[in-house]
Amino acid sequence: MGETRVAVYDTTLRDGTQGAGITLSADDKLRIAERLDDFGVDYIEGGWPGSNPKDLEFFERARARPWRHARLVAFGSTRRAGVAPEQDENLRLIVAAGTPAAAIFGKSWDLHVREALRTTPDENLRMIEDSVRYLRGRGLEVVYDAEHYFDGWTADPAYALATLDAARRGGAAVIVLCDTNGGSLPFAIRAGVEAARRAVDTPLGIHAHNDGELGVANTLVAVRAGCVHVQGTVNGIGERCGNANLVSVIPNLQLKMGCRCVPHGSLERLGELARYVAELANMAPDEYQPFVGRNAFAHKGGVHVSAVMARPATYEHIPPERVGNRRRVVVSDLSGRASVLYKAEEMGVDLSKDCPETREILTALKRLEHQGFQFEGAEASFELLMRRTLGQHRPAFRLLGYRVLAEKRGDAAGISEASIRVAVDGREEHTAAEGDGPVHALDRALRKALERFYPEIAGVRLVDYKVRVLNADAATAARVRVLIQSTDGDKAWGTVGVSENVVEASWQALVDSLEYVLLPRERRAEPAEPAADPGALT
């Protein structure tokens, strides 16, 4: 289809916060709104000013800020049955919010008119028209959300379309067709939009929920059928299963359907926006999220990697840089020589296809993965494996021995102590440290022993520590895999260890984490991931 202007309406701050476990303070909402404005969305729905003090505070503070691109929207409902618009508190608070636009929802499904509003179909039509006209008369651009439109259109097409016409008569700037229960299928969405286009000449929008895993698909189908306004949330957060995910909707529209949604250059910041909202919503970023997830352009199988290296389009639907992402090749027991060569080039390791060490590295990789090692999240350990095989790595120290003790007396909290002896260039260091657990104590003792020789490790922190049992049927004798994430405050890197002894597995990962940071700077690969935040575990 030719280029079509499609307005993007973000409701992360209102509908998104209705998701279970999602809470945003007024400060969080302002920060997200500013980021959305900078990204270039057209509308930002700030909340329902009549529902809680936090939303009132948001609108009060938002009025004092300049908005470069987006129009702020206050949300609410149509007037109550039997109450004049001028006397309706909900509408009064919408006007008082001081936004240039308002969104109000009304009922399109006769079931809701009878059971929820407990009024007559004719009074509902008057409520819609009166409310829209009242807000228009006070200078607001009115977005009318036809709640439950698709269910209503299925149950009683004539009445559902009559509600749209009431909004048109009232002066709505856009009428948004809502799949409120999120259960409609794409063909029903198309038919419902086409019927609405025949009934009213007002521009149409779509508001889809994701209860059938079709929020994005239904939004795209609605645009294809004639909608020029899309609503959704960043990362698809929202009530029940969430809303249509704008992080997928926007690139699909702009890159694949020829629609103009956000300013040129904004798409390259899409991944950054998704991670920012996830952080403020206290959610772990979804590594498998389409377009922006860490694994969205990750390649693991050897055949895939060979093809992608020759021609990316063989296994990538778009260039990852267009949405602020990057190609990632992960190494595992499924890897071939192409994967090893790709990682070697990425890490600055001199390796050629016909080099005998390439096969040696691949053999070692498959053997270690069979034992339980996993290098997908431990690329620093993989780089060390390559350099050791190539004879490019000289250990920073030699372990002479360590001992770890765990003690518990009565009801008091347990305490652990580790003692360690290491040698660096023939000089020995013997020291000890206490910790909250055996791994913590060992980590502290190792750092204490090495900092005299390598002061730079004082800035290294362990920020994540995961233990995975590999053969649970062996009970307490099971082999475990330990994954450690470390940071120097600038970059982060992962390392791995495997053993039947959790302390030994942790030791392997701890040693790699320090050996990696001590690699000569000119030979050390720059990890792609930003350092995890704060809150060191050691």
Please outline the helices and strands:
Blueprint: E1 4-5, E2 7-10, H1 26-39, E3 43-47, H2 53-62, E4 71-77, H3 89-96, E5 101-107, H4 110-117, H5 121-137, E6 141-147, H6 149-155, H7 157-170, E7 174-179, H8 186-199, E8 204-208, H9 215-225, E9 229-232, H10 246-256, E10 259-260, H11 270-280, E11 298-299, H12 302-310, E12 328-329, H13 337-347, H14 356-371, H15 379-389, E13 398-407, E14 415-424, E15 427-435, H16 438-450, E16 461-469, E17 480-487, E18 492-499, H17 502-517
Question: Can you walk me through this structure?
Answer:
The strands form five sheets. Strands 2-3-4-5-6-7-8-9 form an eight-stranded parallel barrel, surrounded by ten helices. The protein has a three-stranded antiparallel β-sheet with strand order 13-14-15. It has a three-stranded antiparallel β-sheet with strand order 16-17-18. It is elongated, with a radius of gyration of 29 Å. The chain folds into three domains: 4-262, TIM Barrel (Alpha-Beta Barrel); 298-389, Recoverin, domain 1, CATH 1.10.238; 398-517, Alpha-isopropylmalate synthase LeuA, regulatory domain (Double Stranded RNA Binding Domain). 43% of the residues are buried. Residues 526-538 have low confidence and may be disordered. The protein is built from 17 helices and 18 strands. Strand 8, helix 9 (215-225) and strand 9 (229-232) form a beta-alpha-beta unit. The protein has 538 residues and is α/β, with parallel strands linked by helices. The longest helix is centred in the N-terminal third of the chain and has 17 residues, at 121-137. It has helices spanning 26-39, 53-62, 89-96, 110-117, 121-137, 149-155, 157-170, 186-199, 215-225, 246-256, 270-280, 302-310, 337-347, 356-371, 379-389, 438-450, 502-517; strands at residues 4-5, 7-10, 43-47, 71-77, 101-107, 141-147, 174-179, 204-208, 229-232, 259-260, 298-299, 328-329, 398-407, 415-424, 427-435, 461-469, 480-487, 492-499. Helices cover 37% and strands 20% of the residues.
